[in-house]
Amino acid sequence: MPQHITLEIAVQDPAGSRIARDVGAARVELAQALALGGLTPSPAALELTLEAAGAGGPEVHVLIRPRAGGFHYDADELAIAERDIRWAVGAGAAGVVIGALDADGHLDLDAMTRLRDAAGGASVTLHRAIDVTADPLATLAAARDLGLRRVLTSGGASAAIDGIDTLRALVAEAAGQIEIMAGSGVDAANAPALAAIGVDALHFSAKRAVVEAGGVRMGSASDGVGGYEVTDRDTALAVVAALGR
Fold first, then answer.
1. SS3 for the chain, per residue?
2. What is the model's pLDDT at position 228?
3. Rounded to two decimals, what is the model's pTM?
4. Which domains does the chain possess?
């Protein structure tokens, strides 16, 4: 099994960062509300996650997403994202994870340039907005032309293993000039197959649900059953072991 594969774990708190450090992940993507696809985390969450990662621990990259739903943002939302990027990098994040599409569902080059520039010299990743564009290969080429460091993609499918053919094509198109990180539904069962196609990194959440029976609706999406998700050490270790590490 290729040993060059970088591992990135999506986490929501300092505890997740400590688990990522302990299992040897090179990066964490810090977000909140992973059940909604991830939203920008709070300042305190970033500060404590950076402390938990510690010197020599995983790099902390921050998801910048001002709301749930699609990726076509208005002027206020882009202004929020831009300021959040400056805040995250200023607080010590090694990179940010961004994505913005235009009204036609293509990569919004003006918005992406603005957000990229806000990151200064920090690493910039295009997130899975690529997976809802009509032509992921063209979107990848645009991301490469923008000078982004990597793309996080499931190959246009709900789960990366189902988009493996497109992922393989993206690896070929990248030609080593931009990193391809496979993510979505990555687990111990499919990680080896995804690693074998030549992606540069695997992204996974290694999460488990904590369910709380509340009985009272909390928000429009609530069904009265509360709960939350946490990073699970055993699940993370299983992915690492499946890769022969």
1. CCCCCEEEEEECCHHHHHHHHHHCCCEEEECECHHHCCECCCHHHHHHHHHHHCCCCCEEEEECCCCCCCCCCCHHHHHHHHHHHHHHHHHCCCEEEECCECCCCCECHHHHHHHHHHCCCCEEEECHHHHHCCCHHHHHHHHHHCCCCEEEECCCCCCHHHHHHHHHHHHHHHCCCCEEEEECCCCCCCHHHHHHCCCCEEEECCEEEEEEECCCCCCCCCCCEEEEEEECHHHHHHHHHHCCC
2. 85
3. 0.93
4. 6-207+234-242 (3.20.20.380)
The 10s digit of each residue's pLDDT in 76-104 is 999 999 999 999 999 999 999 999 999 99
Q: Does residue 220 surpass a pLDDT of 60?
A: no
Residues 158, 179: Cα–Cα separation, whole Å: 20
Q: What percent of the chain has pLDDT over 90?
A: 88
Q: For residue 1, what pLDDT is reported?
A: 42
What confidence tens digit (pLDDT) does each residue in 150-190 have?
Answer: 999 999 999 999 999 999 999 999 999 999 999 999 999 99
Give Rg (Cα) of the chain.
17
